[in-house]
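Readers outside the structure-tokenisation community will struggle with the description of the input data as it stands. I therefore recommend that a typical entry be quoted early in the introduction. An entry of this sort, consisting of the sequence and the corresponding backbone structure tokens, reads as follows:
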Amino acid sequence: MTGARTGAIGVPMERLEGRAKVTGTAPYAYEHSFEGALYLHPVLSTVARGRVRSMDTARAEAVEGVRAVLTPWNAPRLARTDDREFTVLQDGEVYFRGQFVAAVVADGPEAARLAADLVVVDYEVHQHQVDPSVPGRETYRPSADDTGVEADTEQGDVESALTEAMVRIDRTYLTPREYNNPMEPHTTIALWEEGPDRLTLYDSTQGVHVVRGTVAEVFGLASERVRVISPHVGGGFGSKGSAHAHNVVAVLAARALPGRPVKFALTRRHMFSLVGYRPDTRQRIRLGASADGRLGVLVHDVVEATSRAKEYAEMSGACSRMMYASPARRTSHRLIPLDAPIPFWMRAPGEAPGMFALETAMDELSYACGLDPIELRMRNEPERDPESGLPWSGRNLVECLRRGAERFGWWDRDPRPRAHRDGDRWVGTGMAAATYPRLIMPGSEAEIVHESDGRYTVSIGAADLGTGTWTALTQIAADALGCDTARVRLRIGDTDLPSASVAGGSSGISSWGSALVAAARVFHEEHGNDPAVGARSRAGTPQDPDRERYALHSFGAHFAEVRVDVDTGEVRVPRMLGVFSVGRIINPRTAKSQFVGGMVMGMSMALHEQGVVDPRFGHVVNGDLAEYHVPVNADVGRVDAEWLEESDPHVNALGAAGVGEIGIVGSAAAVANAAFHATGTRVRELPLTPDRFLV
């Protein structure tokens, strides 16, 4: 080892695990095989609020192969019961429809499902509230302890600025419930060994150490007695960023039947009540500007739905605190508690709905001022972060706007709405800006060992959700060690490996890669250029003092063309372009996949996704992929993404920020703005269903 850079970073390497995945040999959580495995199927509440009075399990227990029917009266007791998401089968309280009220464990999945259908539950039914749009709903301010940021902020004289503004926009934007729906459902296998009380979980998760910490605490186990294994994950989009109730119910079953592995795979319908979703938002935005489009005031007030069982705040207005220059600014957040399942992270939580509202409002302001939407944004570029006052580590939004406009052919368009018709379609173009913080999570460590065959075993408990972690971390390790990628043997996805932060907030590769670079540096210092066999070093993600000195954010610009059918109102998106400023790119092939995937998900947010709740019963009516539409090939036109060649020395030693989420931020607004340009009809509520354009 020389310690010299090999140039592995920046190479568009094919995925190292790609062949194993397409041939079906890469093991996902549920696919680990065990002799004598048992299968769990749950019984879910059929009321939205109430209490289980009694339960008849006799017919279920009589089904051949049934080993146990767990109920609130016979399930093992938990050590911690203050978190309602994890207080599973500990009492009869029902907080939402689709909550666990019992579980059947059997020799086969068919027997378990049959028996679960035979359990008869008698409820004491209470009046419920599941519709956040009903006037007069109670609201409250989310706690900064839960969100990590203040709910409300204000600077300058907001009311005077609103009164004095020459041009004013005052609009309300609505986004519905949206569901993550990764291809691989949430699954887990739990094995409880008596004697030492040792638990092993094979789990589909974005963070093995996060799941271990939660499960150990809930069951009163020392963390070293819990092992979580997750070598491959079939998507998550945030929903697998923590343990959920299904982990707890599987472990309860394993504890009740020690020595027998218990397998539990959620069905698609289960995922609409048990693993989180993006909650409904109502966002009022008020902009005040001079005649030339320069903002004098920006107000972003947000009301979001949450669950009575457990608070979750999307914090959709936080993006307005730093995006544009404005002397006066106010943001606020309020929550409406509902008898609904517990919301959770979904790709770019906060920024995705928040930037839909802000960037649509900015588009409306551009028309009110008679300015091109790009010119309006450039006129409101802040020299420093408006929220913190810190200098930017690299704010290259203007370059993204200019490059994207040139590449997209933006300047050739007729700026007038409803000006271009091609046969039976109205044609329009729109754009929106994007931002996402450049995050580094603490707590990751990496270990490097020099093996007898001259290779390096690099270990870190990271996760690969299909994002390319196996490949990108191998490239980072090879680059830091000064060797070819073929000499790196990477190990991830196991709590027996050094700890790693969760794959969330677009922070995974940045955080884990920083730990790898630090470990390689220590290895070189301790073992020199000719390490002995078995030479070993370990280091964690270093602290970055620049995080207190600079505002660290990524930026981007989205462009979309839409065609709206004159007769039916159907919206199609034949092309999209995104240009991004995200620091150094580790692997162009996997990075582009992430950008494009995020943009398609944003298009889906704009056109298709909406969880429809029946207010009478509290369930999601379209709780499957037959009715909850996400885009397929026929829905997606030409989607392209590119990025600025840059490196941010303030974010980490790699100069790299995450790319997983910025692709979705702003893309829905670009589509909605294009639909307005095409039709002259401004739709402020997602999704953009055809009926909204039949006016």
